[in-house]
Amino acid sequence: MQVNILKIIISCLCLLFVCSFPAHATKQNEITSVRVWPSPQSTRVVFDLQQKPEFSYFMLKNPLRLVVDFKETKQDQVLPQVTGEHSVISKIRYSKPKKKGWVRIVLELNQSVKPVLFALAPTEPYTDRLVVDLYGKNPEKKTTPAIAKNRDISGDRDIVIAVVAGHGGEDPGSIGPSGTYEKTITLQIAKRLAALIDKQPGMKAVLPRTGDYYVKLNTRSERARQHKADFLISIHADAFVTPQPSGASVFVLSLRRANTETAKWIEDSEKQSELLGGAADVIKDTQNEKYLAQALLDMSMDHSMRTGMQVADEVTKELAKVTKMHKKRPQAASLAVLKSPDIPSILVETGFISNPQEERLLKTREHQDKLAKAVFKAVRSHFEKNPPDDSLFAKLKAQKPRENSVHKVRSGESLSVLANQYGVSVAQIKQANNLKTNRLLIGQTLTIPRS
């Protein structure tokens, strides 16, 4: 009996000790690394921590500084040196902490900035993080216009193609079995594609991302819009939860929902990408003249989606000549980068980086060149057939004798679909082929009259 009473007393004392232990006496947090991502418009500083950060911050003037206080955190990490490529930050240093056991870090600034700070939960390959985005308040520097290419015919504009390299900076995208980052592959292929476009008289490439930094989804379209882009191509490398899937795919916008399980996975991955890259932007809508605005948007979106589908179809055919295709026809998905109503867009998944064999292939210069050439050939072909009226392509097309086209009917195609694709009427196609009905057969060869 006495033994039991003694056990009870000891248990109560232990419980009392635990309950009276200070709530704040938990394991102290620790900054494990500090990374800086410069970009042309902003600078991002990322603090990797062992636990979710508790922090506060404030700005100081004369000189300009951003001060960040980390609660209950160790001061062990060596801070990175800031190089000349950073237009916003000149130095990152420690300062006397606000309280004992805290860490105070000071970011010395070159210009007035708008700071945006937020914590990110662990996502492979990162632990908990504090992200500091510094947006310069000074107007963005105007870039010097590129020197016009030599032309036999002058005074006609280039067709502008925006080539968007997916992910970047804090957002690595998918990660291959050997550790290859999707953001690295996409930038390499995007630069190869842009180089081919720039070599073509009458075409010009725009790269919203030219280095290892993140460009927010809405900003990608906005930068393309600033350059008056005629078309947008987003370059990605696919991934899935298992290593078996392989092959390239081409995606177009669906205003409903994805039509394959892989497309649903892509949509979820892009949402995760937004979280990795920063707070997601919200597409704004206006209440003024909303019905007229909606009607104009619907018309613009309809044109963009139709053009996107035509190019996607040609890109799929060309890619099939140089690589395995995961899907033999363009796929539909609701992806933010495709949703700009005034810029027709496609998303090219160049292969599955989650597949070991395809990961190795995607890293090679030879395969990247093949992919870039296939996409370029398809886009150039489309605009040769459908050039903007004020472009050099349009002038060159007008000088060529017009010829009828030949089309082989595929599954799902109808006379109305072909008429819309080639810019002619159903009656013209029926007359050119002596058709009595609207019925078509798969494999049937049709003469498409010139528009």
In short:
This protein has helices spanning 2-20, 182-199, 217-226, 261-277, 290-320, 356-362, 365-385, 392-399, 415-422, 426-433, and strands at residues 29-38, 42-49, 55-60, 65-70, 73-74, 89-95, 103-109, 113-120, 128-136, 159-165, 203-206, 231-238, 249-253, 331-333, 345-352, 405-408, 445-448. It is α/β, with parallel strands linked by helices and 451 residues long.
Q: Provide mean pLDDT, rounded.
A: 81
Uncertain ranges: 18-25, 139-151, 278-297
The helical percent reads: 25-40%
Rough outline = elongated
* Distinct helical segment count: 10
Biggest sheet, in brief? 6 strands, mixed
Radius of gyration: 28 Å
SSE succession: HEEEEEEEEEEHEHEEHHEEHHHEHHE
Tell me how many strands there are. Answer: 17
Per DSSP, what share of the residues sits in E-state strands of 2 or more residues? 15-25%
The structural class is alpha/beta
Major sheet strand order = 11-10-12-15-13-14
Distance between the amino and carboxyl termini: 104 Å
Quaternary state reads single chain
What does this structure look like?
- It is built from ten helices and 17 strands.
- It is of the alpha/beta class and 451 residues long.
- The strands form four sheets. It has a six-stranded mixed sheet, sandwiched between helices. Strands 5-1-2-9-8 form a five-stranded mixed sheet, with no helix packed on it.
- β6 (89-95) and β7 (103-109) form a beta hairpin.
- The protein is elongated.
- The N and C termini lie far apart (104 Å).
